Amino acid sequence: MHIHLFRNARRWDSCLVPIDDTTFGMILQFKVRLVRVEPNTRFFMGETFATGNGMLHDTYGHFHLDRWDDHEWENYKDRFVNVVQRHWSDKFILDPNKDWHVPRTTSPRNSATIQCGLSIQLVDSSSQAHQTYRIIHPRESTFRSYVEEFNRTGVFTHNDLEPHWNDRLTRIGSENHNVSFLQTTVNHEFGHTLGLNHVKGVGNSDANYGVTLSERENQMGMGGLLTPRHAQPWITRLRNHLIPQTHYDTTVSFRGRVASPQLIEYWDNDWRPAAPAAS
Questions:
Q1: Which domain of life is it from (predicted)?
Q2: Which domain does 111 fall in, by range?
Q3: Residue 273 forms part of a structural domain
Q4: I need a surface site. Which of 41, 123, 131, 164 has the fewest CB within 10 A?
Q5: Does any domain span residue 274?
Q6: Is residue 275 domain-resident?
């Protein structure tokens, strides 16, 4: 197997570097521009636009824009990097289906695993950036933040770095329960930047965010639970780093797994304790 250590691309750069004889690190590297949207800012992104009169217009309504305080803006930028990296970096390990790596030592070929990392560098211009996000400060709380993966852009609000609760009817067994799910919007939207769709496919209908409890609690549903499926961006990117040299190499594949336990971040509001067994 021939290994390319570094690759550049429009959506993100990446590197695959050896950590030791049995472990590699695969890091997706993003250069991100965060654009500070003020009441007098003008921009047009399809059906989302502002004309500089203090209002933002969108499919879901009209929103009053407040000014950013300088300290608040700098804090937002720092926290954006920390929140996204903390959630997505070092959360997956890729396991090969067979031995594939021949270390430089005298060790035989082995089945080295790959640790999945993610890094974000903030840049000042769109020409430098892989992704450009506009950050608004609306008075209303009903704006629906979004990412346009194909345009490498998106619109977020000042509240999107905070976890928030969503209540949804959710199928548990044969019944529908009112369940509260905890999710941080920017982490869900960054999943779209990585190329991940909603848990039940492309679209913004309620069903696309899941129906059952396991679907709803998914990061690409209503919750924050990461699953092996979310390692797919790293697996896909490996094709640019691992170049088969033999037929044996072409039969090597990788499967993702979540690297550590996760918190349960939902609450079933209709849960009731089981009745005591009859004596």
A1: Bacteria
A2: 2-268
A3: no
A4: 164
A5: no
A6: no
DSSP string covering the chain, please?
-EE--EE--SS-EEEEEEEETTEEEEEEEEEEEEEE--TT-EEEETTEEEESSSEEEETTEEEEBPPPPHHHHHHHHHHHHHHHHHHHTT-EEEEESS--B--SSSPPPB--EEEEEEEEEE-SSTTT-SEEEEEE-BSSS----EEEGGGTEEEEETTTTSEEEEEEEEEETTEEEEEEEEEEHHHHHHHHHTTPPPTT-SS-SGGGG-SBHHHHTBTTTTS-B--GGGGHHHHHHHTTTEE--SHHHHT--EEEEE-S-----EEETT--PPPPPP-
Provide the residue-wise pLDDT of the chain in tens; the chain has 279 residues: 899 999 999 999 999 999 998 999 999 999 999 999 999 999 999 999 999 999 999 999 999 999 999 999 999 999 999 999 999 999 999 999 999 998 877 677 788 999 999 999 999 998 999 999 999 999 999 999 999 999 999 999 999 999 999 999 999 999 999 999 999 999 999 999 999 999 999 989 999 999 999 999 999 999 999 999 999 999 999 999 999 999 999 999 999 999 999 999 999 999 887 777 776
